[in-house]
Amino acid sequence: MFDDDALLKKIRDHFQLPAFAGLNRVQHEEDPDDLRIVYKATTADGRSYAVRMMSNPYSTLEDLAGQASLCGLLSGGGLNVPSRLYGSDGRPYLTLSWNGREVWATVETWLPGKEPESLTIALAEQAGEWLGAMHRLAGQASAPIPFTSGSPWSLFGPEDELDQDAQALENALRASAAEPLPVGEVFALYRQKRSKLRVCWPKLPGGPVQGDFSLNNLLVDENGRLCGVIDFHLAGTDVFVGHLAGEASFLAYAADKEEGAETPEELGDRYLNALLSGYERSRPLNTRERSVLNDLIGVRRAFACYQVDDVLGDLKAGRMEQVNRQLQRMLVYLNKDYCPAFPR
């Protein structure tokens, strides 16, 4: 429990806040390498803040400063994102010792709104508009925003999670009784598309991104319209179209499954198209970005982490018929033309 009065006083003093009139815990996740505690704190004057205590191996103090700068940039551009508070030493964080571990505390404004119950076509389109606006504003920043790493969607870096998942799956499939022909086809296509993307990657525009544009970080108003984006703790530097492809594919899988669709990928296509349409209204893609988007979405959908986990689970359970069906689905994702109007 985060109920240490002395610790709370240190946080209040550092961020020059009055005493808290109310304090409600909204999140507490803790393991040996990762701590995340979030409270909604209300002061006597009626203002509300998100008070966070965190510790993990992938963030640095420079990243915390970058998160605060990115929030300030986007807020200044008219987007409703949390504003980080700066402390008495001019920093947007405070380092502390808690339960024998070093942690940092941040405080940001609490945004009104609620998490949407499901993703709709209209909300996907609005999400695309916001994501495009975020990328546009980030690309117009007058000075670089410091981050020590990329976003979770970054490709071709030391933390390329997509390639790590793909390699783990290939090794498992090669050692299994899966049909060798589709296995070979899947990974030949994957490597072909990655090779094309690697050549273009250094020439694509990029900058700081929020990094976790998932459904639980979107806020909607009483009419179900998008009214805020929260949670910048995975922010980092990325290629904008790569981030777009990752977030769009992720949100497509998060969508409710509509009745009447002929194939599973048809469901995701509707949400992808809506999000891409909204994105281009805020930030039209350039010719080079358009030329790589189809391959990016293909590899993202074929090797989504949760899909890889499903195939590995079927392999472990010996459900080879299901594994072979999944391989055929991956081939559909890799071969599909998601952007028929875009140059290939």
Description:
This is Phosphotransferase. The chain is about 45% helix and about 15% strand. It is globular, with a radius of gyration of 22 Å. It has helices at about 5-15, 60-75, 120-140, 160-175, 180-200, 240-255, 265-280, 285-300, 305-315, 320-335, and strands at about 20-30, 35-45, 50-55, 95-100, 100-110, 205-210, 220, 225-230, 235-240. α3 crosses α7 (about 265-280) and α9 runs antiparallel to α10 (about 320-335). By secondary structure, the chain is of the alpha+beta class.
Summarize this entry quickly:
It comes from Paenibacillus ehimensis. The chain has 2 domains: 5-109, Phosphorylase Kinase, domain 1 (2-Layer Sandwich); 121-335, Aminoglycoside 3'-phosphotransferase, Chain: A, domain 2 (Alpha-Beta Complex), CATH 3.90.1200. It has 10 helices and 9 strands.
Give the key terms:
344 residues; alpha+beta; Phosphorylase Kinase, domain 1; Aminoglycoside 3'-phosphotransferase, Chain: A, domain 2; 2 domains; 5-stranded antiparallel sheet; two-stranded antiparallel sheet; 10 helices; 9 strands; globular; Pseudomonas-type_ThrB; Kinase-like_dom_sf; Aminoglycoside_PTrfase; Phosphotransferase
